[in-house]
Design goal:
Shape of chain B: globular
Strand content of chain A: 25-35%
CATH architecture of the domain at 56-160 in chain B: Orthogonal Bundle
Largest sheet of chain A: 5 strands, mixed
Number of strands of chain B: 4
Number of helices of chain A: 9
Radius of gyration of chain A: 24 Å
Largest interface: A-B, 75 and 65 residues
CATH superfamily of the domain at 56-160 in chain B: Cytochrome c-like domain
CATH topology of the domain at 131-299 in chain A: Sulfite Oxidase, Chain A, domain 2
CATH class of the domain at 56-160 in chain B: Mainly Alpha
Order of helices and strands of chain B: HEEHHHHHEE
CATH class of the domain at 131-299 in chain A: Alpha Beta
CATH topology of the domain at 56-160 in chain B: Cytochrome Bc1 Complex, Chain D, domain 2
Number of helices of chain B: 6
Oligomer: heterodimer
Radius of gyration of chain B: 22 Å
Distance between the termini of chain B: 51 Å
Helix content of chain B: 25-40%
Chain lengths: ~450, ~180
């Protein structure tokens, strides 16, 4: 670091970059808390000394527990868990949502990755499972899991988002629910498998093929039509999730991975790919994952998840413990490329400061953003707004609703009666440090 | 690990030999599969009618099957219950997808055959014969007044049923340009 260049940065690190206490993003990342001491001193009283002698705790005075073959979180962290909207496995869709408000980083661990299944989780023996590629190909072929392991593998860190994620925000009034309930149908993992294009080289492709229909081996034989161009772009037959075989709720033993595409198209328990001239217009693309619009029409084949972000801390249900320096943190992602910028506001969108993007910033993956904030104890409305490398910008809720509409009445938070909501989310901090969901 | 190394080695060798067009020979672990091997799995039906099997059914035949295999979840008149309403004159309301129905929303009648055959009944999917599926499709379409009560539904007639909301959709993905299939 050149000493000459440090002086202006020192000043900027102390400076507010937007209203209501947002500080330059370098304040925390490069200088630590000390650098903001002068600014923080105005509202921070020093904490009293610890005043109790430190002693060995019981766990420091005896041998610990045996090490399990497959470890699970500490009992003290077991509350960091998914919520299940259909715990009795009734004959209807099941959703298990990711608790983003209790997590940090960019990777969703496998036990917490969201799951939607439309008729339960099948118990598939990988020794007899087959993937068939047929239709408009030159050589229809069948592959076992073992067969696929003979092919070159690739890994890709990418998010998967259900088209129904954040649907409660179509409500005419802000639904008072946490990030998990509102935005828990998106997760991000490292997926490893064989490129679909590699397998299509072996089957050969009839030039009349424009689509492929992918189908699962689950009870509904869930199927979606995908433009064939996606197969050549970045589609993967995924076998591993964060390094271990896919979780049953995420498609064991293999799933289609279509980076950036609506979650439902990433067919789990994949057993069949048929190359075709036309889409099948399956139930899931004729009704369930369409998007009814205010003008009476409806979007169909809304495939790419649009640029989006939400603050995970502080967020609904959490509590700030008094004025002082905090780090606002959240997730940003786009199905159209890499996040280029996240702006954060603490005054309901009147002024914005640029958040720090935590490396790595990858195309179609979660990007963790962070923003230092000196809370003065007064009311604040926190918002984040994401931009991607293709020039897409997350809309305000007013902009979004003007184009895409809102419900007439407050919906069941567990239902998704419309899809593809990606507007700005607002959390209001009150003078007691409580956080509510508001529209601003 | 040795398997992986061998794969990469073979791939490099093939590349070095200029085997570009013959890449399918590089690994070659796919097993040829015939249309007859695929019969039980090859269940997709398309708006053009492609994929529809032989056989036929009428609403009258479908009524009894509906009562015994569908009504428990969808209601004795198809009005809905644990499962969604199948026979309804509900009108679409705003942007609420829960007010969409087969009659007021689905663009293609073939979807009904495809979905019933692959996913229903809930507790025993793929247990219906093709004739039963045709009969159920005829019953649901006729009860929704989308076809005459006495129409015989088969591979020729079903794709010709024009659904009321056929033109009600906007393809969102800018790379996709309908119509998707030759008429």
């Amino acid at each position: 670091m050149a000493s000459k260049g440090d002086r202006p940065e020192d000043r900027s690190a102390l400076a507010a970059v937007a209203g209501n206490g947002l500080l330059d993003r370098r304040a925390l990342l490069r200088r630590g808390l000390g650098a903001t001491g002068a600014a923080a001193g105005a509202v921070l009283a020093p904490r009293p000394a610890l005043a109790i002698p430190l002693q060995d705790a019981p766990w420091s005075l005896q041998n610990g527990a045996p090490t399990p073959s497959y470890q699970v979180p500490s009992k003290y962290a077991s509350f960091v868990a998914r919520t299940n909207a259909n715990p009795d496995n009734l004959p209807k869709v099941t959703q298990a949502r990711t608790p983003h408000q209790l997590m940090d980083g960019m990777i969703t661990p496998n036990g917490l990755h969201f799951t939607i299944v439309h008729a339960g989780i099948p118990d598939i023996d990988p020794a007899t499972h087959r993937l068939v590629i047929h239709g408009l190909v030159k050589r229809p072929l069948s592959f076992t899991v073992e067969d696929l392991h003979r092919y070159p593998m690739v890994s890709r860190i990418t998010f998967i988002e259900c088209g129904g994620n954040s649907a409660p925000l179509f409500s005419p009034e802000p639904v008072q629910a946490d990030v998990q309930a509102l935005h828990g149908l998106v997760s991000c993992a490292e997926w490893t498998g064989v490129k679909l294009s590699t397998l299509l080289e072996e089957t050969g492709v009839d030039p009349r093929a424009k689509w492929f229909v992918a189908e699962g081996a689950d009870a509904p034989h869930l199927d979606r039509s995908i433009p064939l161009s996606k197969a050549y772009d970045d589609a993967i037959i995924a076998l591993y999730q964060n390094g271990e075989p896919l979780m049953p709720g995420n498609g064991f033993p293999m799933r289609l991975l279509l980076p950036g595409y609506e979650g439902n198209t990433n067919i789990k328990f994949l057993r069949r790919i048929e190359l075709t001239v036309e889409p099948t217009m399956s139930y899931y693309e004729s009704q369930v994952y369409t998007e009814p619009l205010p003008n009476g029409k409806a979007y169909q084949f809304f495939l790419v998840s649009e640029v989006k972000s939400f603050i995970t801390w502080p967020s609904f249900g959490q509590k700030l413990t008094g004025p002082g320096l905090y780090e606002i943190s959240g997730l940003a992602y786009s199905g159209d490329g890499a996040i280029s910028k996240v702006m954060v506001s603490a005054d309901g969108g009147k002024s914005w400061g640029k958040a720090a993007l935590q490396d790595p910033v990858m195309s179609k993956a979660f990007t963790r953003f962070r923003m230092p904030w000196l809370w003065d104890g007064g009311p604040a409305i926190l918002q984040s707004r994401a931009y991607d490398e293709k020039g897409n910008m997350q809309p305000t809720r007013a902009q979004f609703v003007k184009a895409r509409g809102e419900f007439d009445k407050v919906p069941d938070v567990k239902a998704f009666q419309n899809h593809h909501f990606n507007a700005i989310v607002s959390w209001a901090v009150d003078s007691n440090g409580g956080v509510k969901h508001v529209y601003a | 690990m040795s398997t992986r190394s061998a794969t990469i080695g073979t791939a490099l060798l093939a590349f070095a030999c200029g085997a570009g067009a013959a890449d399918h020979q590089v690994v070659g672990r796919g097993q040829p599969v015939t249309e007859s091997d695929l019969r039980a799995w090859n269940i997709s039906v398309f708006p053009s009618g492609a994929g529809l099997p032989a056989g036929s059914g009428t609403a009258q035949q479908g009524a009894g099957i509906f009562a015994s295999k569908c009504a428990a979840c969808h209601g004795d008149k198809g009005q809905g219950g644990l499962g969604p309403a199948l026979i309804t004159d509900i009108q679409r309301h705003g942007i609420d997808e829960s007010t969409t129905s087969i009659a007021n929303y689905w663009p293609y009648s073939t979807t009904l055959f495809d979905y019933v055959r692959r996913a229903m009944p809930w507790q025993s999917p793929r247990s219906l014969g093709d004739e039963e599926v045709y009969a159920l499709v005829a019953f649901i379409l006729a009860q929704n007044k989308l076809i005459p009560d006495d129409e015989v539904v088969d591979a020729r007639s079903l794709p010709r049923v024009r659904m009321p909301n056929r033109d009600g959709f906007i393809i969102h993905d800018p790379k996709l340009t309908p119509p998707f299939a030759a008429p």
